[in-house]
Design goal:
6 helices; 2 domains; single chain; Antioxidant, Horf6, Chain A, domain 2; 5-stranded mixed beta sheet; about 30% helix; alpha+beta; 3-stranded antiparallel beta sheet; Glutaredoxin; 10 strands
């Protein structure tokens, strides 16, 4: 039996796939978001309970994302009419307005470009995928979730803050890092620099555990 080809996936630190699509707030292209961060996220279908909770979560955090120069853009392969009816249902039943646009992707062009269609999960639905795209249009992070489990919007906000901190200060962030925590200083790349780190890192404001592992406060 001939097997279908695996979906092509975009790659981190490469340009995000360009798109032009109809949304609930008019046409949108990737170029429209140049100069801002963009979180593009897909859901399997409108009027599904897990997706409803996620959209409510994104809506409640919308201003927090905007304060970090980040826009939100949803997607499913449903029609604009379905999206609009779902938005109205969320407002009527949960008292929450959805302030960000949702892409209509009936032909699955955007979903396929971003590797959102996983035949093992569903032949005609986009899995729960989330893409972080930086102001230069470069894909910086991807997160995939199964159909049965909702995403954590708080974690996406934290990850965005971590990415922006790494970019601004040329540092890494440890597990569960949050703003205000110490960051990881990149390890030295030569033997001489390693000796210097151990000998004088503390004088430079670092907490040196070993030559390769040092932290500091920002």
């Amino acid at each position: 039996m001939e097997q279908s080809a695996a979906p092509s996936l975009p790659r981190i630190n490469e340009p995000a796939p360009a798109f032009r699509a109809a949304t609930t707030q008019g046409e949108r292209t990737l170029a429209d978001y140049r100069g801002k961060w963009l979180i593009l996220f897909s859901h399997p279908a409108d009027f599904t309970p897990v997706c409803t909770t996620e959209f409510i979560g994104f809506a409640r955090h919308h201003q927090a994302f905007r304060a970090l120069n980040c826009e939100l853009l949803g997607l499913s392969i449903d029609s604009l009419f379905s999206h609009l009816a779902w938005i109205r249902s969320i407002r009527q039943n949960f008292g929450v307005d959805i302030p960000f646009p949702i892409i209509e992707d009936l032909k699955m062009e955007v979903a396929r470009a971003y590797g959102m269609i996983h035949p093992g999960a569903a032949d005609t639905q986009a899995v729960r995928a989330t893409f972080f795209i930086d102001p230069q249009g470069v894909l910086r992070a991807m997160v995939y979730y199964p159909m049965s489990n909702g995403r954590s919007i708080d974690e996406f906000l934290r990850l965005l803050q971590a990415l922006q901190t790494s970019d601004k200060h040329a540092v890494a962030t440890p597990e569960a890092w949050c703003p205000g925590d110490k960051v990881i200083v990149p390890p030295p790349k030569t033997a001489a620099a390693a000796e210097e780190r151990v000998d004088s890192g503390a004088q430079q404001g670092m907490e040196v555990i070993d030559w390769y592992f040092s932290t500091k406060a920002l």
